[in-house]
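Researcher: We're teaching a course module on how sequence relates to structure. For the next exercise, students receive a sequence and then see the predicted structure as tokens, so they can try to spot secondary structure elements on their own. Here is the exercise chain.
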Amino acid sequence: MTVAEQLAQTLTDVNTVPAEVSAKVIDAIQDLTASALAGLGTPAVEASKAAAARIWGGGAAVSWFSDTRLTVPGAAYLNATLSSVMDLDDGHRAAVGHPGAGIVPAVLATCDVFDAPFESVITAIAIGYEVAVRIAASRHHSKLTTMVSGPWIGQGVAAAAAHLRKMPPHQMAQAIALAGASAPNLLAVGYSKVMGNHLKEGIPWATAAGLSAVDLADAGFTGPIDLLDNEEIYRRKILLDDLGEKWVLPDVYFKPYSCCRWAHAAMDAALQLQAEHRLEADEIRRIDIETFGWALRLNNDVHPASLESAQYSVPFCVALVLTAGADAFLPMSEAALSDTRAVTLAEKVRLLHSDRFEAMFPQAVPAKLTIHTSRGRWGCEVLTPLGEATNPMTAEHMRAKFQSIAASKLAPVDAERIDKAFQALRNGQLQKFKNDLAAPLTVYSGTTRLTG
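Model: And here is the predicted structure for the students to work with:
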């Protein structure tokens, strides 16, 4: 039996998940919804909305916050774009990537067409995370040329949707194989100098590919079922040990800033030093940031021309958090790109490689920040940024994240409706939650803002 078949055989028999896992799924859905609200009106979402209907056509699946209805892959593609474009979506340290932005939209789009009870939806999402994270974590990270999520998230999508549709193990296995073999390779991300583009990690396309793989498998189409059996690429032990018993979801992290996770430790350090020493941005002469090698491979533009470019710039993000505060990242706005104080400060940032931090990655994403001023020099080391499973965002943090996003993106009446939708979700009222996701927003036409 191949690894894909063993994954499918074990997970097909799972009908419920532990309470801790179920609670984390609900947290993930709520956080992903807030992240999707942050993506409203962005250029990437507008382009995706214009193209999605032409690519996939109309259907019965919901394009969130609008009256647009698309096929399941089409709706999931657009909703995954909404969820991931602002880099606020969840992640997993072992995967070095972002499972939720594909899996949650995929499952919710699937249950728009294949009706399922609340517990089945929760279980399917948990299974999607399980397959995606295990596949990503099983890779030999030292051999990778890019850490993007697109090459592995589709397999989790396929497993989740197949489980929700109650497909037999052999079809789930084929769906996983097809999703993996047809995933976007994203090789250009490993060498391209243009990180400020809309493709980013390829999550939306991988999500649509994973759902298409489920339809293909359901129709009898087959793929390379031994896809995961190559030990030089995938470590079998990580893929299969404790499957169905030990779950990956409790270790999912959530993000307080709309930028690459690899900048967060330095940003936390910057805010801590600013608070301790009452630092003003204008008095800072230089900022030294010690970090790991992969963070140095980001574009790190000090004057980014797009939101995507800004998200991948450690110097700019540290400078912006010092000049505008943490709320400037919930979400980051295009106005921030022309913040002259942030750009001026970003030019004073020096990035340095740390052998010690290199040895910690990817199990940790640490940084040490040293600020030089005329008054003195102060340093702060952060090994575990806010949001990690070992330094979690509290319920108050999560609520504040939603409220900040809602204040910048929604009319009060819509913010109140979405807040009530979260309450319905936590009470197990899935249909009420989905109905609120499906309702158009007051100040938007689809995802396009109409008024201030």
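Model: If you want an answer key for the exercise: Residues 148 and 201 are 5 Å apart (CA to CA). Residues 118-138 form the longest helix (21 residues).
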